Amino acid sequence: MEESLVGRGNALKQLPPIPAQMGFLAPEVIAYFQELSGIVVAVQQELLDMKVLTVGGADGTLSRYQAMEFLGLKHAKFNLIKEQLTKAGSPGRPRYTLQSCMAWLQQKKPISQVDMARRLDHALLAGNKESQRASLRRPQPHAVFSAQ
């Protein structure tokens, strides 16, 4: 596991370097802080990867609400572009892929990893809202009590 953290730790580089004013610290302490910041960046990347799997599922598809929330679009605009996002050859209701949504966003403007993580959080919440709405629509079984 440590190898994957070290190998992927350079992807985000969101943490600032150790400032030169910290010259009063021992070199071992500075090296420790640098290593620690690398681990934090790697953990952030792993968390982002887990969110991508959680939102997109094993096959990488999103629900309509998740895709709309991820892209930050309303129904009318989403209806105009949904064919570009639909998974090819999907029978039944259309499924949207996380990769196609990311590609559409990158085509409009480059987005940062932080913005990507924020959008994934919103898509996760949209999925939760959708499942809550579905549970409200389902008829709830009523308990039948018999007087004995």
Which SSEs are present, and which pair or pack?
Blueprint lengths: L1 H7 L18 H30 L4 E2 L1 H8 L3 H11 L10 E2 H11 L4 H25 L11
Antiparallel strand pairs: 1-2
Helix pairs in contact: 1-2, 2-6, 3-6
Overview of this protein structure:
By secondary structure, this protein is an all-alpha fold. The protein folds into 2 domains: 1-55; 57-132, no CATH class. Helix content is 62%, strand content 3%. The protein has 6 helices and 2 strands. It has helices at residues 2-8, 27-56, 64-71, 75-85, 98-108, 113-137; strands spanning 61-62, 96-97. A two-stranded antiparallel ribbon has the order 1-2. α1 (2-8) crosses α2 (27-56) and α3 packs antiparallel against α6 (113-137). The longest helix has 30 residues, at 27-56. It starts with a helix and ends in an 11-residue tail after the last helix. Mean pLDDT is 69; it is low at 1-11.
Shape: elongated
Unreliable sequence segments: 1-11
Which strand order spans the largest sheet, edge to edge or round the barrel? Answer: 1-2
> Count the strands?
2
Helix fraction by DSSP (H/I, runs of at least 4) = 55-70%
Coarse structural class: mainly alpha
Over all CA atoms, what is the radius of gyration?
22 Å
Largest β-sheet summary: 2 strands, antiparallel
Number of helices: 6
Query: Per DSSP, what share of the residues sits in E-state strands of 2 or more residues?
Result: under 5%
Number of domains: 2
Rounded to the nearest angstrom, the distance between the terminal CA atoms is 60 Å
What order do the SSEs take from the amino end to the carboxyl end, as H and E?
A: HHEHHEHH
Mean model confidence by pLDDT: 69
